TrEMBL record:
Molecular function via GO: proton-transporting ATP synthase activity, rotational mechanism
Subunit structure: F-type ATPases have 2 components, CF(1) - the catalytic core - and CF(0) - the membrane proton channel. CF(1) and CF(0) have multiple subunits.
Organism: Stylonychia lemnae (Ciliate)
Official protein name in the record: ATP synthase subunit gamma
PROSITE patterns named in the record: ATPASE_GAMMA (PS00153)
Organismal lineage: Eukaryota, Sar, Alveolata, Ciliophora, Intramacronucleata
Keywords for the protein's UniProt record, in alphabetical order: ATP synthesis, CF(1), Coiled coil, Hydrogen ion transport, Ion transport, Membrane, Transport
Pfam families linked: ATP-synt
InterPro entries, sorted: ATP_synth_F1_ATPase_gsu (IPR035968), ATP_synth_F1_gsu (IPR000131), ATP_synth_F1_gsu_CS (IPR023632)
Membrane topology per record: Peripheral membrane protein
Coiled coil: 247-284
Amino acid sequence: MFSKPIQRLQTSSVVLRESRRGFAVNEKQIKMRMKSVKSIEKITKAMKMVAASKMRGELTRLEAGKRFGFNSVDMVFKSDSYLQRKAPVQDMHDSSEYIIPLTSDRGLCGGINSNIVREIKGYVKDKNRSKIRIMPVGEKGSMAMIRPFPDMLKMSISDIGSPCNYPTIMAISDQVMRDSEGYDKIVVYYNEFKSAISQIIRRMELMPRKRFLDTMKFARLYNQKLPDKNTSNPALYELYLTSNLWIAFLNNAASEQSARMNAMENASKNAREIVEKLNLLYNKARQARITMELVEIISGASAL
């Protein structure tokens, strides 16, 4: 006469054991996930501190670079109104362009690289592709542009080192000088550093070598502020191109580190939020397991 209660007790015990086992597995999984997220948070915090330290160094280099007479030759052209009126005007309609997008070699720095790529995609969309050549600087830009612009990319530059130095920029400038022969203008896209939380995309137009030399020959006739005739125009062009590229690279490097610092700060914040949610789930699972054990004890005692 005790067969049915005993059978019912055995069935309920099996269900309770399975439920308790499920709660135990759930708690273990949540605990393991919390541990992994906390490890990620430690990494992102460390990366944020490293990026902040590097950003301070890049800002020091940027301030020093700004004092290095960038736009030195171009400033003379723009300051002389008579020269601007008399200078020969070149028709830039449907002109050929040599585009240099500056990106980073490493990721985890927000959207500064994708913003540059998006800007160039929008710019060349309605242009004559046969008259545009792109030379991306940085691994991220090279990888992002090789598929949409296979006909425009002839070469790319990456692994230039961090922090970059002036001799490296001189070598890049020499390469640009040779490759941009025959183009009407050189266009540089880079991220300008505004503050630790703000970077904006800048488009800087530079003159190719032939156009610069022609302009310098004309400028010497009207402007006495320029260096004397013993100074060679090719040397002035090298200074003009390298100094402008130097400032663009310094701005881009500072923007990269500030963007990485912000990205790691956001990642750390998200990790903390995930840990809090997982901790709440863990407490709920633990409370449910304890409740189930109490129910099992009470059910066993009632059956006896």
